[in-house]
Amino acid sequence: MTEPAPQSDQLVRIERHGEGGHVAELVLDRPEAMNAVSTAMAHALGRATKELADDPTVRAVVVTSTHPKAFCVGADLKERNSFTDEELRAQRPLAQAAYRGVLDLPVPAIAAVDGYALGGGFEIALSCDLVVCGEGATVGLPEVTVGVIPGGGGTQLLTRRVGWSRAARMIFTGERFGAAAAADLGAVDEVVSAGAARERALELATTIAANSPIGVRNAKAAMRQGYDTDLSAGLRIEDEMWASTAFSADRAEGVAAFNEKRRPSWPGR
Asked: Which of the following is catalytic: 48, 143, 153, 201?
């Protein structure tokens, strides 16, 4: 049988940072398995991302790991080795909800990757808006080497990030890439010193959280909803998000703060 849902979410923790706690750190905390995504961890990740999505005080999310040598090594293949086909089918919606929970966060999400981010672990990172890697990081989608395909969004998200041929190379070969090579391909956004990914991601998140929460959320919504449409449809979506922002209390406060030469105190509505 599949592993039952844990009674505690300690496999995935939420920590708050900064003034007002507007930066949320989503901590992957299964170090004994290098954060391999078991059924229990998928449950925990799905619940944690729902909690963050439902919290209007969250302005940015950083996904981190407690393991110094692994962000996440993907699906727990030791657990899956004992699965029947029926149990694997039963686990599938839980895994999908976990990855979609990261992808569908309404605020910007930043992955802080040090060490290995492989398979589903790299898909968690790809589900974020930005990926910061320590220079010693290793990323890849090696699923075809064990008889499956990326199933946490990797075939779609990586292709959208880097284009068809570069994604084809990574996915069809199952090759692993160091941080610099991954950055050259466009698979990650920024490379920092080894061990510094979390610090840099929190710095970026703090910068984002200082901006209008309504503006940032609506900008992300416009980008996400318009990405796969034609330009005309995308511009209509942008106009809808503009109107939702332009007549908000945040816009009034932002304009007033600019003219009064002070920091805005965002109402967030």
From this structure: 143
pLDDT tens readout for residues 124-169: 999 999 999 999 999 999 999 999 999 999 999 999 999 999 999 9
Domain locations along the chain: 12-209, 213-259
CATH architecture of structural domain 12-209? Alpha-Beta Complex (3.90)
pLDDT tens, position by position, 77-90 = 999 999 999 999 99
Whether 48 contacts 8, CB under 8 Å: no
- Residue 75 is a catalytic residue: yes
Record the pTM.
0.93
Catalytic, out of 75, 111, 179, 183: 75
